[in-house]
Design brief:
The structure is a single chain. Strands 2-3-1-4-5 form a 5-stranded parallel β-sheet, with helices on both faces. The longest helix is centred in the middle third of the chain and has 25 residues, at 79-103. The protein has 2 domains: 1-28 and 107-200, Rossmann fold (3-Layer(aba) Sandwich), CATH 3.40.50.300; 36-105, no CATH class. By secondary structure, the chain is of the alpha/beta class. The chain has helices at residues 16-25, 33-39, 46-55, 68-77, 79-103, 135-146, 150-159, 163-169, 181-199, and strands at residues 5-9, 29-32, 109-112, 127-132, 172-175. Bound molecules: adenosine-5'-diphosphate. Adenosine-5'-diphosphate binds next to α1 and α6.
Amino acid sequence: MNTFIVGLTGGIGSGKTTVSDLFNALGITIVDADVIAREVVAPGSDGLRAIVTRFGDTILDALGHLDRAKLRTIVFSQEREKQWLNGLLHPLIREQMVAQCHAAKSPYVILSVPLLIENNLQTMVNRTLVVDVSRESQIQRTANRDGVGVEQIESILASQCDRETRLQAADDVISNEGDVSSLNEQVADLHEKYLTLAQM
Ligand code: ADP
């Protein structure tokens, strides 16, 4: 059966998790690219084995998990290693996203991908749903959630596409400028729309 896939995206702190929790409460399966990105390098995975072969076992922490901070430092300063890592991980992540979407039993699936547009993954989805919010709210909410400084958040924002680019790529938009309760209605309307589209 062909699974109807809605790609959910938005910048850091825009409210993707909050929105996907609401879809999940309506019985919709959520496939989360961030979760998969951790699974493909979990202990015992082919991904982690390949990383250890390349960088040695000092890339592991005391518990045998990937030391992400160390790996980030390496790829930040060495473009070749960054390309190697992306070449390893992107296909693994993509393969898992497809497999989990197709294994889902709900009438449609939400595929949550923070960098859907940046990584040109829109071909994987039937529709693109953007959670839209002002830059100010993004910074404020991320700072509250993660307890990190504005400078760090701004550097993440700079690595993501801008609001206009994201909106241009959207089929549907959820505005998250109001309070959380205003999301309920928007999600309920889109849910009806996706149920209909998934049957066509
Ligand atoms: P993302 O998954 O896109 O990074 P989250 O869903 O985690 O974003 O939202 C970022 C933070 O902002 C979370 O702490 C969340 O509880 C909070 N949040 C989300 N939507 C709203 C809102 N409308 N008003 C106030 N806080 C919000």
